[in-house]
Amino acid sequence: MNKLIPLTLLTALQTIAINSSAHEAHVHGSATVLLAQDGNRLTLEFDSPLDNLLGFEHAPRTDKQKQAAKALLDLMQKPDTLLKLNGDADCQLTTVKVVAPVLQATSTAKDEHANLHAEYEYACTKVAALKSLQLSLFDAFPAIHKVDAQMAGARGQVAATLTPKQRMLAW
Fold first, then answer.
1. 147 part of a folded domain
2. Nearest partner of 100 among 142, 144, 51, judged by Cα
3. Hey, which end of the chain has fewer CB within 10 Å, N or C?
């Protein structure tokens, strides 16, 4: 039953995000970060239109686009370079899942709006010290102008719109 709590928290956050920005389901320049903490576990989800990350949203056609797509997928396997939890919590990445169907070699996705979705799970040894998330992804992806971020955990819920000038979500 404890395994249902992070799923429930993320579902609640996603419902809030969908309801509050249903008209912004796919907005270039915007991304979303959702965090849910349960005990010593933290789940982090990142969603963005591929255009923000690559400059295109279709299956890669040229060698340059194929290289950029591979580099993006490789980078998303190392979230600490883009999404930094405060170090005092001693959180270790345990699971990575990156989904961008249009970038898959066997993709049959149509050339229309496409997103990248990444899910990361962490185990934190000092969860009481977990207090913030710093976004450095604005440096890697200058096409992202704002990130709608939400956190739900033992201390409650917090939401903020992060920008290149305001990069930290604190709780």
1. yes
2. 51
3. N
Residue 171, domain member (yes or no): no
Residue 47 lies in a domain: yes
Amino acid in the structure at residue 148:
D
Is a pLDDT exceeding 60 seen at residue 106? Answer: no
Q: Report the domain count for the chain.
A: 1
Sign of CA dihedral 138, 16, 58, 100: positive
Give the chain's end-to-end CA distance (angstroms, integer): 26
User: From its phi and psi, is residue 101 left (phi > 0), alpha (psi between -120 and 50) or beta?
Assistant: alpha
The angle at the Cα of 34, spanning 155 to 148, to the nearest 5 degrees, equals 105
The answer to whether 150 and 34 are in contact (CB under 8 A) is: yes
Domain assignment of residue 76, yes or no: yes
Domain residues for the domain of 39 are 4-164
Instruction: List the Cα angle 40/75/105 in 5-degree steps.
Output: 115
Confidence of residue 112 (pLDDT cuts 50, 70, 90): low
